[in-house]
Amino acid sequence: xxxxxxxxxxxxxxxxxxxxxxxxxxxxxxxxxxxxxxxxxxxxxxxxxxxxxxxxxxxxxxxxxxxxxxxxxxxxxxxxxxxxxxxxxxxxxxxxxxxxxxxxxxxxxxxxxxxxxxxxxxxxxxxxxxxxxxxxxxxxxxxxxxxxxxxxxxxxxxxxxxxxxxxxxxxxxxxxxxxxxxxxxxxxxxx
Length: 191
What we know:
By secondary structure, the protein is an all-alpha fold. Helix content is about 80%, strand content about 0%. The protein has three helices and no strands. It has helices spanning about 5-20, 35-165, 185-190. The relative contact order is 0.03.
């Protein structure tokens, strides 16, 4: 059977020490042995009190150590939780930074794409304008050539008309009457 270390046991030790100190030895033993036995009883009582005090101090130290271990474990748990939260926050910040970087890259790519599209549209518009200008120039040249041709034809016709007028002194160029030409010998001989 084992005895548990509890307050009842330490009280029992203290009570036993007190009883040893007040033990009446002399009427029950030889008178020569009383001082030696009395001294041993007092010494034993002192040892019991010291032992009880040591047990109480050891219990208090154990309780303090357990409490310190629990506090340390709780602090370690809290520090671990804080470290996990800090890691979560760091990962979340990294994700957010990556998302922002991705959005910025997408925006930059979209801006570049829009810039290139605008440049292509501007180049197309410029090419179309140049083409239209070239068409207009060619059309103007054609019109100028046509006008020049018509003018040349008109001048040629005017020159012919004026040369015919010289040949028909009696008639106008628009006259339907045959011109009066002196008939030469050859024309008369043909008839």
